[in-house]
């Protein structure tokens, strides 16, 4: 088996992702090029995605120097919006998987349905909406099955894409209804925290739901948010801002 030459790793920060990639490639930092594909680590519950590639032994000749200059890190390429071909492939993968699972569904690529805009640091993203009958099993308790389905789709899809692409799956607009509910909850609790001057912790939530709360209250002048806890018990706490 030939040695691996590149790897894409997602982690809490860029440094953590690079460290994991170096361990997987068995290389040092001086032996690789690092391309940051996404960096939202400055946000609560943000994340980073990097592509780490083993440097070629070839040299780039600098005409102003008598000796060859080493290849340096490539700058991060700007993220491109998903095109029709990318959406077609994503829809095809989702449809094939659902058929094998025994579901008869209508699979559509849609524009970002969220009120939360994608930042320039985030990867190319495809939004897929699944509609049909008796799809509760795809959602699961508090969206657990939906999260697992989305993970599988992303693994399968990125074996066919030449650029890292995130596929966000929704079933019967469950994510949108949940997002609207979380925003309303966050705003109600924020008003209570601001009035009583005491912090309130919300129920444990997965990362995507915690992020909705953080973003919903990001510009609130009276409160601030922070996440704490381990794994499935991690939760958001809303604090009053110091006057």
Structural summary, described in words:
By secondary structure, the chain is of the alpha+beta class. It folds into three domains: 77 residues, no CATH class; 89 residues, K homology (KH) domain (GMP Synthetase, Chain A, domain 3, 2-Layer Sandwich), CATH 3.30.300.20; 64 residues, Ribosomal Protein S8, Chain: A, domain 1. It contains six helices and nine strands; from the N terminus they run βαββαββααβαβαββ. It has a three-stranded antiparallel sheet, with helices on one face. Strand 2 and strand 3 form a beta hairpin. Helix 5 crosses helix 6. About 6% of the residues have low confidence.
Q: By helix and strand content, what is the structural category?
A: alpha+beta
Give the CATH class of the largest domain: Alpha Beta
CATH topology title of the largest domain: GMP Synthetase, Chain A, domain 3
Number of helices: 6
CATH superfamily of the largest domain: K homology (KH) domain
Could you give the order of strands across the largest sheet?
Answer: 1-3-2
Stretches with pLDDT under 50, minimum 5 residues: 65-78
Mean pLDDT over the full residue set: 81
| Secondary-structure element series | EHEEHEEHHEHEHEE
Distance between the termini: 62 Å
Specify the biggest β-sheet. Answer: 3 strands, antiparallel
Gyration radius, in Å: 21 Å
> What's the assembly state of these chains?
single chain
Number of domain modules: 3
Approximately what portion of the residues adopt beta-strand conformation? 15-25%
